[in-house]
Every structure is written in C-alpha cells, then in structure tokens.
Write a structure and sequence with these properties.
single chain, 500 residues, Rossmann fold, 6-stranded antiparallel β-barrel, 5-stranded parallel β-sheet, 16 helices, manganese ion binding, Ara_Isoase_C, isomerase, carbohydrate metabolism, AraA_N_sf
Length: 500
C-alpha cells in the first residue's frame, strides 16, 4: 500500500527498433520487473505504472500527450534501457507539461565478466543511451531531476521518493485554491505579492470571500453538531472539565466549535484547501479563530496569518508533500530569541500553530487574546517535537519568487513557560543564529514561515527546479559572505533568464 494511492507516476522506457524483437522483449521484461520492485518498496510513496517501451517519435509523443491528459498522472520516470536516439524525444518533451525524472541506471548491477559479449553490451547500454537522452534535455533547456545508481539501491529509492513527493507538491499547487477572509494586515510588505504571477507559476488561485458569507456559514452550524464537536475535543485533548461545565466557558467553547465547523464547510463548499484571515478584520466572527484554525491545519488545510496567502499555500503544499512521514507541518513565526551559550529562536504565533508538530498530547485552554478583538479564545498549548526541521518562506521579489529555506534543530525548552498562552517550538538555526538570521534577512525571508519536520530539503529543491523557482538554503555549511554572493549571482541569472 502506497501513501499516495490516488496518484500515479508513469515509468517509460526508451529504446529503438534497431535491436530486433528479442532484445525489445528483454527490455520490456526487465522494465516490468523494475516497476514491480518499485511498487513493492515502502521507501517510494507513489505507485508507478509501467507504460512500456517507446521506440519512435510517434510513440513518445503519444505517451507524453496521454500523461498530460491523465489527471492521476503527476509525473514520469524516463529510463533509457538501450540507446534511444534523442531526436525522437523532441516532439514529446516539447509538449510534455508534467514533470519528469531521468533515472540513470541499468538492470544488472554487476558485469558478467566471464560471459560478457557484444550482445550483452548492446542490450545493457544505459550508460550510453542515457547520455544521449541527457543531451536533448540540456539542449532544450529542461531543468529536470537526474537520479544515478542501481535501481535496487536504497539511496536511489530515497532520491526517487524525494522527487515523487515534489511532484505531489506540484500537483497539489495546481489544484489549490486559497480563500482570503479580510485583506492583508495594513502596512505589512512581505505578505503582499502578485497573485496572478503566483497562479501562472504555481497553479494555485487566491480568491477573496466576504466575512459576511463566512459568518452565515458559522451561524448555520446546529447545536447538535456543536455538541458532537465538544465531545471530540474532550476525547482528543487534555482539558479541564470546567471548560464544558462552567456556563461562561462553555459558551466560548461552543463558539469556537461553530467557527471550526462553519469555516470547514465554507472552505469545502468553495473548493479551498488553504485560507488566510487577519485580526484587523473579524466583523461578524466575534473573535480570531484559535483552536478552530489549529484543527483545520491538522486536517490538512494551509493557513497564513494576517493575509499571508503565500505561506498559507506553502503550508498546504508541504503537508501534501510530507504525507505519511513522521512529524508535522505548521504555520510558524520567528517570535523571540534566547541568547546564550547556544543562541535559539522561539517560534510561535498569536494562536495558530498546528498540533501536528506537538511533542506530547496538547492541552486545550482558554486565554485572553489581546490583539484585534480582545476576548477569551480557546487554543491548544504544546511544545514542538525535538528533532531536525526546517523553515520555508516564499517571497515575491517583483521579477520572480524566491524560496528561502533554513534547516534548524528543534530542542526541548530548558524549563516550563507557564505564562505563555500559545503553542510554540524552540529551535537552534543552522549553522547558528548569527549566520542564519543575517542570511535570512539578506535573502528577504518573511517573519512567517512554513515549519516542517516532514519535508526534506531535497524534496523542496526538486519542487523549486520543476517550477523554475529560485531557492536558497541556509544550513550547516552557510557562510554569510558566500551566501550574499550567491544572492547576487542568482539575481543576475534570473534577470537574464527572464529577458530583463
């Protein structure tokens, strides 16, 4: 059973008729065995479909067109078992609009030293054929993933899965709608951006909906549905019984349950899997959704505070990429620092941190919210799980989008924070806070991010490559001066590439 059973990656083998029917039968047999093995591997999350051997320009064009028109196909793995003259691929690759990965492997791992002859050489010449295919990809200016190694090697499976998950992210973005309730937080720059440019490059659309429409959906939730939701809260989280027995607290809990159910129904009705709101515009809702937003994120919805639609979209996309892996993904913000022997950052937000990143069972509590509508709001409290993680920020630079990635190590807080009424994660940025923060600022990274322990840097790199998006990584190898030079070089490249 694969993680993404509703999606497919097509496996296409390249060859030609020159070798005769016996060789082509062997090519087809060995390709089928490879696909069967990939589908048995728990390390590869997307099922593969053997689409046979293509031997002519017409067959290549037909399989590329078929992939374009199949909504279940999220990408292709292309492998040249023998020599496949690359001019045959021009028409197909010119029309292919699904991402592809070039697998550079061969069926047998070791050479049969005592029996190898020219028949063996001609049948197993991936080393030869893949270079011919590689040339045409470069000649056509196609940025693609190339995975090298024997197809049974676990590292090859890992790299294939990283790419498969990137293709899942591309598919998620192309089928995503972000709902905006209220506008961008006033006077904030980095959360703005060109929505048309984003839709052209990423595929997702960003639409505004009136708070009056959302309020109607919230108010339409029945008392019976609210009661069932409260039962779910009580069975899922640590919480004091008085939240459901004290009349005034119960009213707050009922209101939050209505917010959650009304928002989810509204988002589902309009086909949105991500949303934004802002504490500056909550007319009709009565409060900023806290627990409601946290639980919607846990269900897979993307979220961005203060109208941050780029982060909202990225949270949803990364949740899809990381499906089935340990850990979670959440909307996050670098909130405050802990300077000491090892400098640290405490990440949080006013209310909205996803419980998928929690180290332990969250506590449901009610505390005063003092920004925007000042009122008591239910929310989940927890600390983030320890371990490797990363923060991702997508920003609009006018002539392009840039993705900024910082790898971090999440740690347990050295002591409790009994007066902090929000969920949080404490991390040590790589390589250290001094270099990481300076590099993030030089790159223009936002104060909001998509925080994840599910998604790898390699998957994000594959995602950026498929989209043709700039990506810069701040990790244990980063040095500020070199990083600044990388930004300057990137700027020149993307200006030249766009014809500016």
């Amino acid at each position: 059973m694969k993680v993404f059973n509703e999606k497919q990656v097509w496996f296409v083998t390249g060859s030609q008729t020159l070798y005769g029917p016996k060789v082509l039968e062997q090519v087809a047999l060995e390709s089928g065995q490879m696909v069967a093995s990939f589908n048995e591997s728990s390390a590869i999350s997307v099922p593969m479909v053997d689409k046979g051997t293509v031997k002519s320009p017409e067959e290549i064009l037909n399989v590329c067109r078929a992939a374009n028109n199949d909504p279940d196909c999220i990408g292709l793995v292309l492998w040249m078992h023998t020599f496949s003259p690359a001019k045959m691929w021009i028409a197909g690759l010119s029309q292919l609009n699904k991402p592809f990965m070039h697998l550079h492997t061969q069926f047998n791992a070791a050479l049969p030293w005592d029996s190898i002859d020219m028949n063996y050489m001609n049948t197993h010449q991936s080393a030869h054929g893949c270079r011919e295919f590689g040339f045409i990809g470069t000649r056509m200016g196609i940025d693609r993933k190339v995975v090298v190694g024997h197809w049974q090697n676990p590292q090859v499976h890992k790299e294939m899965d990283d790419w498969c998950r990137a293709a899942v992210g591309i598919h998620a973005g192309q089928n995503l709608r972000v709902a905006r309730f209220g506008d961008n937080m006033r006077q904030v720059a980095v959360t703005e951006g060109n929505k048309v440019s984003a839709q052209i490059q990423f595929g997702y659309e960003v639409n505004a909906y009136g708070l009056g429409e959302l309020t109607e959906a919230v108010q339409s939730v029945s008392d019976a549905d609210v009661a069932r939701m409260l039962d779910e809260y009580a069975s899922t989280y640590e919480m004091k019984s008085e939240l459901l027995t004290d009349a005034s607290l119960l009213t707050l809990m009922q209101h939050e349950a209505r917010l959650e159910m009304g928002m989810e129904r509204f988002l589902t009705d309009v086909g949105a899997n991500a949303f934004t709101n802002t504490f500056e515009n909550l007319t009709g809702l009565g409060s900023l959704p806290g627990l409601a937003t946290q639980r919607l994120m846990a269900k897979g919805f993307g979220y961005g505070g203060e109208g941050d639609w780029k982060t909202s979209a990225m949270v949803h996309i990364m949740k899809q990429m990381g499906k089935g892996r340990q850990g979670g993904t959440s909307f996050m913000e670098d909130y405050t620092y802990n300077f000491g022997a090892t400098d640290q950052a405490l990440g949080a937000h006013m209310l909205e941190v996803c419980p998928s990143i929690a180290a332990a069972k969250p506590r449901l509590e009610i505390h005063r919210h003092t920004i925007g509508l000042k009122c008591d709001v239910p929310r989940l409290l927890f600390s983030g799980k320890e371990g490797d993680a990363l923060n991702v920020s997508v920003i609009d630079l006018g002539n392009r989008f840039r993705m900024v990635v910082n790898t971090v190590k999440t740690v347990a807080p050295p002591q409790g924070m009994p007066h902090l009424p929000v969920a949080h994660a404490l991390w040590e940025p790589m390589p250290n806070l001094q270099i990481a923060a300076a590099s993030w600022i030089h790159a223009g990274g936002a104060h909001h991010s998509a925080y994840s322990q599910q998604v790898s840097v390699d998957t994000l790199a594959d995602y950026a490559d498929i989209l043709g998006m700039e990506m810069v990584v701040i990790d244990e190898n980063t040095e500020t001066r070199t990083f600044k030079q990388e930004l300057k070089t990137n700027s020149l490249y993307y200006r030249l590439a766009s014809g500016v």
